[in-house]
Amino acid sequence: MTAKILRFLAEERPETPCLIVDLDVIAENYRSLRRYLPVADVFYAVKANPAPEVIKLLVGLGSNFDAASRPEIEQVLAAGAAPESISFGNTIKKQRDIAWAYEQGVRLFAFDSEAELAKLAESAPGAKVFCRILMSCDGAEWPLSRKFGCDADMARDLLIRARDLGLDPYGVSFHVGSQQTMLDQWDIAVGRTAMLFSALNAAGIELKMINLGGGLPAHYRSDVAPVDVYAEAIMRAMTKHFGNNLPRMITEPGRSLVGDSGIIESEVVLISRKSYDDDVRWVYLDIGKFGGLAETMDEAIKYRMHTANEEETARDATGPVILAGPTCDSADILYEKNQYQMPLSLQVGDRVRILSTGAYTTSYSSVNFNGFAPLKAYFI
Amino acid sequence: MTAKILRFLAEERPETPCLIVDLDVIAENYRSLRRYLPVADVFYAVKANPAPEVIKLLVGLGSNFDAASRPEIEQVLAAGAAPESISFGNTIKKQRDIAWAYEQGVRLFAFDSEAELAKLAESAPGAKVFCRILMSCDGAEWPLSRKFGCDADMARDLLIRARDLGLDPYGVSFHVGSQQTMLDQWDIAVGRTAMLFSALNAAGIELKMINLGGGLPAHYRSDVAPVDVYAEAIMRAMTKHFGNNLPRMITEPGRSLVGDSGIIESEVVLISRKSYDDDVRWVYLDIGKFGGLAETMDEAIKYRMHTANEEETARDATGPVILAGPTCDSADILYEKNQYQMPLSLQVGDRVRILSTGAYTTSYSSVNFNGFAPLKAYFI
After folding, report:
1. N or C terminus of chain A: which is more exposed, having fewer CB within 10 Å?
2. What's chain A's Rg over C-alpha atoms?
3. Residue B161 has pLDDT above 60, yes or no
4. Which residue among B134, B332, B348 sits closest to A115, beta carbon to beta carbon?
5. What pLDDT does residue A185 have?
């Protein structure tokens, strides 16, 4: 919670719920990543926070962009990014969207299947393509499923096939899982990628790029290591498995660049107990799962929360609460199993601040579920 | 899938993904509910599908409305509904929204806690208030948590307090759980409500209304009993527990009125396997959890699906599939555990129809997650 955000909240008293993003934090996070991992090109994962203010800032800082869809590419181009700085990183693309992106000058595409490769060969001839491989992803708070990627032996065959189809078999990508806290996951993934580089070398193909994905954490309820610790683990893995012959390295940070830049200001709508012998209070906020906090699904992401009058209530006793959103949907509960504590003096109308909510919030908001408007955001 | 919808799809070939709603189905469902449960007043749960076309139709048919928020009330009033036909049914309301609704003429409010009652006493003096009680809800496909309602003994005390605060202690509400398929749940709930009526009678308060909530099903993958079977179960429970002295009855159908009225037309973006020995295909549609199919969360609602060329492929063998959405979010999987089958001949570009998607889809769509636009809807 930066001084700039605190000042904005104190002076503007914006209507809740709303997200305040301090753009300086994003700039600092970007520079920090460049400083500690200077050999890697940064491709910002637009989906983490697609606000024009964020994109513009990152264009200005020289970032590249990982886009998930045609509208994201449109937005990045509109903000002044060069088409060569864009990776169409979704492995699930409509043929007509590939063709459109290629026409705009985008030349870097992800794939993980034969069918996607066929689309690329037809609509993006000669483009650089990289194959995403499956990872197991222990230790990630927002876990990955098997939705993306394929087995390494299939990846090898597909990259050979890419060459035969007139594409440029450019490299390999993986994702260790968002909010990844186990450092050795990078070692496993880089090792697997290096083996694939060798296998393709044997087939006469020299891959040129390793895409390390995202996975660097933001600061939620658990403490996380600073970016330099991750950078060091990644570089150690790279030199261990590639020696001096390092390929081009790409990272796709989303959460780690923008997550900690924002806080959501919300209001307590209701505090209640369900029966006389309940020792847990239900605290209902004016934001919930469908208003921007979708990542509380299965209580995966555990945000830090501050009650606004923290200083005054610091001496107060706290007690367990179940936190829920304002909709009539019974699934709209934020935290029930992960016991949160709040001051016993908490009152209806008090403000509650939800920290590190700069990533994966605004764009996740529902259009108007239960009539509630999407999360409003201020970029300062 | 009505003839009207099929004709629309054949003639218009709308861009996917989109929802087509046949308004005639909603009108027929409304009339059917009135026919089989004539003593109950219908309060349509606006949140199920808040489209102006749906609201207008139901205003015309004489429906009342269960609104979850100020914007929903605004919308219902704008469609020509009288304020007396509106119940502000959310138990979690901001004080200023209660005051605003009261100014508009709304006089029926839900509550389930002391704090909410205090707000109502201050901002809606003299209004009819009903207390929601907790139910356990076995048998519901979209389960209820303990988020709404309070224990019966607390409800009794709160209704007495309502009178002392100058409010009209009007009745009791419960909800047996959305998509409820166990008929005896109504018997349990009505029985508990009748006991509460007696307890308040002993305190000199005559409650006048029982709000049966929603819970009647739409037709997803499991077969469901027709509405008359539910109506009969409800009336049996009412006469068993209330005898000839029936209170005013209210139902709040959402899913059962609009669910079966709509189908989503989607397109297969990709079909792939993750490894050579996978016998399950991954089928990626252009709609997923964040584009309107939020109720597939934890695979709770299991939609029926048709591939568009069903007739041609009827003789085809089918095979198991995992169904997923188009975003780069690994949680955007529709069905993985509940094995769905699709024709082995299914191809990229084929259309897939998702049935009974008239409720809880459009308004759940994310604003622009991964850049994808919210679900477009046609009302015919």
Report:
1. C
2. 22
3. yes
4. B348
5. 87
Which tens digits make up the pLDDT trace of A91-137? 999 999 999 999 999 999 999 999 999 999 999 999 999 999 998 76
Greatest Cα pair distance in chain A: 74
Nearest chain B residue (CA) to A46 = B370
Q: Do B270 and A367 touch (CB under 8 A)?
A: no
CA distance linking residue A107 with residue A168, whole number of Å: 10
A245: which residues sit within 8 A by CB, 6+ positions away? Answer: none
Chain B contact set for A148 (CB, 8 A): 328, 330
Q: Tell me which amino acid residue A286 is.
A: D
Interface test with B, best of A16, A54, A92, A337 (most B CBs within 10 A): A92
Q: Which of B329, B348, B351, B360 to mutate to test the interface with A (most CBs of A within 10 A)?
A: B329
- Separation CA B91–CA A28 (nearest Å): 43
Six token digits for residue B73: 């009330």
Alpha carbon separation from A203 to A111, A150, A160, A166, A200 (Å, rounded): 20, 19, 8, 16, 5
For chain A, positions 267-296, list CB contacts with chain B under 8 A. Answer: 267, 269-276, 282, 284, 286, 290, 294
Q: Minimal CA–CA distance to B91: which of B57, B119, B50, B63?
A: B119
User: Residue B254 carries which DSSP code?
Assistant: S
Tokens, residue B119: 């707000």
A116–B270 C-beta distance less than 8 A = yes
Which of A154, A275, A324 has the CB atom closest to B275's CB atom? A154
The answer for residues whose C-beta is within 8 angstroms of residue A164's C-beta and 6 or more apart is: none
Alpha-carbon gap, residue A178 to B241, rounded angstroms: 54
Domains of chain B: 24-258 (3.20.20.10), 260-379 (2.40.37.10)
Q: How far is A363 from chain B (nearest CA, A)?
A: 5
Amino acid residing at B224: V
Which of A236-250, A357-371, B130-144, B278-292 is predicted least confidently?
B130-144
> In 10 A of CB B7, how many CB atoms?
11
Summarised one tens digit per residue, pLDDT across range B230-260 is 999 999 999 999 999 999 999 999 999 999 9
The DSSP string of A252-292 is --SHHHHGGGEEEEEEEEEEE-SSTT--SEEEEES--TTTT
Chain A residues with CB under 8 Å of B145 CB are 330-331, 333, 336
Chain A contact present for B255, CB below 8 A: no
Q: State chain B's mean pLDDT as an integer.
A: 94
A95 touches chain B (CB under 8 A): yes
Average pLDDT over residues A225-235: 92
What is the ipTM metric for this complex? 0.94
For residue B314, is pLDDT > 70? no
Q: What is the pLDDT of residue A88?
A: 98
